[in-house]
Amino acid sequence: MVNLLNFNQPQLAQWFGEQGEKPFRAKQLMRWMHHFGVHDFAQMTDIAKNLREKLSAETEIKLPDVQLEQVSNDGTRKWLIGADTANSIETVFIPEDDRGTLCISSQVGCALECTFCSTGRQGFNRNLSVAEIIGQLAIANRSLRAESGYDMLPLNDRIISNVVMMGMGEPLANYDNVVTAMQIMLDDSAYGLSRRRVTLSTSGMVPAMDRLKEDCPVALAVSLHAPNDALRDVIVPINKKYPLKELMAACNRYLVKAPRDFVTFEYVMLDNVNDTVEHAYQLLETVKGVNCKFNLIPFNPFPNSGYETSKPSHIRVFRDILMQAGYVVTVRKTRGEDIDAACGQLAGKVLDKTKRSSKRIPIEAVE
Ligand code: SAH
Ligand code: SF4
């Protein structure tokens, strides 16, 4: 059965056209499904009864299953969402004074094997469908609205004001589905989020960054984590394919079309690995010529990671060097640690199909 959550508005209009229906039905349906969160065709009162009957006979609006919802002491929430019987992914909501941010997953596992990332350590199973990606927003919205008593209100009084594609997986390795899901997030008939409030984080898949700036330019975060190629080759292995110089050039090309005039460089602080004074000065050289901000992320440990979090005093020194050079630098506050919802701790349940113990999968295979 066709799951209508897999379509953006133009695709839905085309589908209606193919069914001999008026394409404007797509807008009505997007509003019901996404804006109002109504998934029962019988309640879609402005759609003719015979069309509603046809839709319920031939299509479905199907969200993935919620297996577990956890709330942290600090208000952070995490949903464990079933991708299929063997696999699950995680979605995290982070409330702050001035915004509410939902961190969405794009794949079951990740093939890119960054050494400090728990998702990357688990291997790769599959890409998420559009319905599974946008479904995370729908599930979180439903739950947060029910909680706040705003059950019947449309989304304009937003609890979720920002989305970051920073959960499990490399979003640009699941390009088509991620772009379609982000188009739904931006669509005024659906979630109507501003491009500036949707951020995609990538480990640096250069050709896909070039496509994204044309297809769906949203705010961009790039996981840098190392100031030179020798170190980045080891901790972010995709660097062997797209080294720093190419990555910096791609960032500048992206900025021509981006909704914000800076790229955010994420930099995980690993004790004694990438956090020295020398690394900080090297980093300044590496990013020269790119309009950027820095987000330093204290490493979030997970079992057998082999890494430790940088000492707070080292993080301060590192931050001050970047700030003195004139950059805006934030140090990410760890949220939801008690429910393992912090950055890089999202594990879900990944049945690894890559058999990485016997064979490393080539980076080409994920493009
Ligand atoms: N694949 C994308 C997005 C998901 S990861 C990417 O790599 O950008 C989101 C962010 O969390 C990335 O910057 C990632 O490097 C960082 N991260 C991964 N593991 C981490 C850990 N254990 N501690 C802190 N940050 C981590
Ligand atoms: Fe994949 Fe991002 Fe983790 Fe690297 S940091 S393994 S790209 S999810």
Structural overview:
The protein is of the alpha/beta class and 367 residues long. The chain has two domains: 2-60, DNA polymerase, domain 1, CATH 1.10.150; 65-359, TIM Barrel. The protein is 33% helix and 18% strand. It has helices at residues 9-18, 25-35, 49-58, 118-121, 130-148, 175-186, 206-215, 229-235, 244-257, 277-286, 312-324, and strands at 2-3, 59-60, 65-71, 77-82, 88-95, 100-103, 107-109, 124-127, 162-165, 198-202, 219-223, 263-269, 292-298, 329-331. It has a ten-stranded mixed beta sheet. A two-stranded parallel sheet has the order 1-2. Strands 7-8 form a two-stranded antiparallel sheet. The structure holds S-adenosyl-L-homocysteine and iron/sulfur cluster. The site of S-adenosyl-L-homocysteine (SAH) has 17 residues, from strand 10 and strand 12.
**Number of self-contained structural domains:** 2
CATH superfamily of the largest domain: Aldolase class I
CATH second-level architecture of the largest domain: Alpha-Beta Barrel
So what's the overall shape? globular
Bound molecules: S-adenosyl-L-homocysteine, iron/sulfur cluster
- Tell me roughly what share of residues is in helical segments: 25-40%
Give a short account of the largest sheet: 10 strands, mixed
CATH class term of the largest domain = Alpha Beta
Poorly predicted residue ranges:
152-156, 357-367
